[in-house]
Design a protein that fits this description.
The complex is a heterodimer of chains A (about 300) and B (about 220). Chain A is about 75% helix and about 0% strand. With about 300 residues, chain A is mostly helical. Classes of the chains: A mainly alpha (about 300), B mainly alpha (about 220).
């Protein structure tokens, strides 16, 4: 594990450099927008990474809340299974199929729905107990950073293309902004909490945040159909060469995000162990021996 | 079920009696929202047509800020003499306490709205063009949306440093869809341009979702000392 980290760092650095070269030199220039469109290679991969991290945070928070009692753990397990299987089957029913937005294939939606139980059980397996909370705080912090990149690069692109920095009432812009606000308040709560159960409070807030996002989406969706706004991206299909570069960039950003999460995760684990050691020290009234301070511990 | 109702009623009665005697929350809310109304009136100085467009936003922003003032005091009262600790060890259902507090806040904020709404009409020369009765469900559902999450987050912010400022920081981001629904719904009724039914349904959905979430998680938050 310890040797994997530097190897992964080198791979990520090479990938990022290659993706930068691809995005700035190899990718063809857009016919209408010119070179300014190239920001998409940073904007979209950051957005996907941020949403993935927020999703992981939500799953970890639900797991953490559910793991408090054995009964709720069993109930949550069945509910998640029911959501995954029921949702995947529902996508193929004709009544649901024609309600899906045009261009969205039922099989793609079903795969996304099946990702919920898959993530739930994988996270529960690999991150037992308190590590769930460490995962939640890590993914929230890194997610906020990526989401900030999205919110900064968006207006830089929108100004020359749309003529405005920000389109208030646009569905994607507003829901991303609200998501960012919710996760900033999540981090503020963690910072300001004096409770010994900060984890529980933060997990409850994460659940509230996740419930909020579909409602924001719903409210602004109606809002926008009433007051038409500029449409993102102009729709239509993408040049396969551009898509290729975009996917390479996403892979590079995912590797980078994973790397940052990993080191933050280790840091948080060490931080908690140091805190625990200090607490033990003040309880015992003596000085801890050097071996009890786990500063040179290797992660399992 | 019976014990839930009994405890809810008893706590609610106690809160209303305390409020009736001191009038702390109501007075501070009233004066605060009056100040907001007056300052907005000076800041914008709108014509009748403009005021119809912006009044929905102003009135709900004023109520949102005023409600935050009252919500901050909800649990502070229970901290004195360790009432909350006593509640925690008692066998009474935690949700009864939550429901009582949320209902109490709902009553206080509703009284505030009933008193402030005429003032708004006077200050902004409002003349409603849409169906007026639709303002009632919007007000009821919107107020409940604010107080149910507000009561929950006030309980959460009890365990933080500088809790007075924590409540708005937690409450406002989560309340954005509800505020959007209230403001857009009220503006729709005031201007009579488009139907407000969608916003009523949106607020109803928001209320159902978050009331369920609050009742499901309140016990965890109450015991997270």
């Amino acid at each position: 594990m310890k040797r994997l980290f530097p190897i992964l760092s080198i791979v990520t650095a090479i990938l990022l450099a290659y993706a930068l070269y691809q995005a700035l030199v190899i990718a063809p220039t857009d016919l209408q927008q010119g070179d300014v469109y190239r920001i998409i290679y940073y904007h979209v991969p950051s957005a996907w990474t941020a949403f993935l991290l927020f999703f992981i945070n939500f799953i970890a928070s639900v797991q953490y809340l559910a793991s408090a009692k054995p009964s709720s753990r069993t109930a949550a397990k069945w509910i998640v299974l029911a959501i995954g299987i029921g949702g995947a089957i529902a996508c193929f029913l004709p009544q649901v199929q024609h309600r899906l937005p045009p261009g969205m294939r039922p099989s793609a939606v079903a795969t996304t729905v099946l990702a919920i139980p898959a993530f739930y059980f994988l996270i529960g397996k690999f991150f037992p107990g308190e590590q769930l909370d460490v995962l939640a705080v890590t993914s929230a912090e890194v997610g906020v950073v990526f989401c900030t990149i999205v919110l900064v690069t968006g207006p830089i692109w929108a100004r020359p293309v749309w003529g405005i920095w920000w389109a208030p009432g646009d569905i994607r812009l507003t829901s991303t902004l609200v998501l960012w606000l919710i996760y900033v308040s999540y981090l503020v709560l963690r910072r300001f909490s004096t409770s010994a159960q900060t984890q529980t409070l933060a997990a409850a807030l994460a659940v509230f945040g996740a419930l909020d996002v579909p409602l924001v989406y719903l409210s602004i969706w109606f809002f926008r159909t009433q007051h038409p706004q500029p449409v993102i991206g102009g729709g239509g299909s993408m040049d396969p060469r551009m898509l290729h570069v975009l996917l390479i960039n996403w892979l590079a950003f995912l590797c980078f995000g994973f790397l940052v999460c990993w080191s933050r995760y280790r840091l948080e684990l060490l931080h908690r162990e140091v805190e625990e050691a200090h607490a033990m020290k003040s309880l015992e009234g003596g000085t801890p021996t050097k071996t009890s301070l786990p500063l040179n511990r290797s992660p399992q | 079920m019976n014990s839930l109702c009994a405890v809810t009623l008893a706590t609610l009665k106690k809160d209303i009696r305390l409020e009736w005697r001191s009038k702390d929350a109501l007075n501070s809310m009233l004066f605060f929202s009056l100040l907001v109304v007056v300052i907005f009136a000076f800041a914008f100085d709108p014509l009748a047509e403009e005021s119809r467009q912006i009044a929905g936003g102003l009135i709900w922003v004023a109520f949102l800020f005023a409600a935050a003032v009252a919500l901050n005091q909800t649990w502070a009262r229970e901290l004195r003499n360790q009432v909350l600790d006593a509640y925690r060890v008692s066998p009474a259902p935690a949700n009864a306490l939550f429901l009582a507090k949320a209902l109490g806040n709902f009553i206080f904020v509703s009284v505030l709205e009933a008193l402030m709404a005429p003032l708004f009409v006077v200050f902004y020369n409002l003349h409603v063009l849409g169906p007026v009765w639709q303002l009632i469900p919007i007000a009821i559902l919107g107020t409940w949306a604010l107080v149910v999450n507000g009561t929950f987050f006030a309980a959460m912010s009890l365990r933080t440093r500088s809790r007075e400022i924590m409540l708005p920081l937690l409450l406002f981001p989560i309340s954005i869809p509800a505020v959007l629904g209230m403001v857009a719904g009220t503006t729709a009724v005031l201007t009579g341009d488009n139907p407000a039914q969608f916003y009523i349904v949106l607020l109803l959905t928001y209320d159902v979702v978050f009331t369920t979430a609050c009742l499901g998680l309140f016990e965890t938050v109450l015991h997270a000392e």
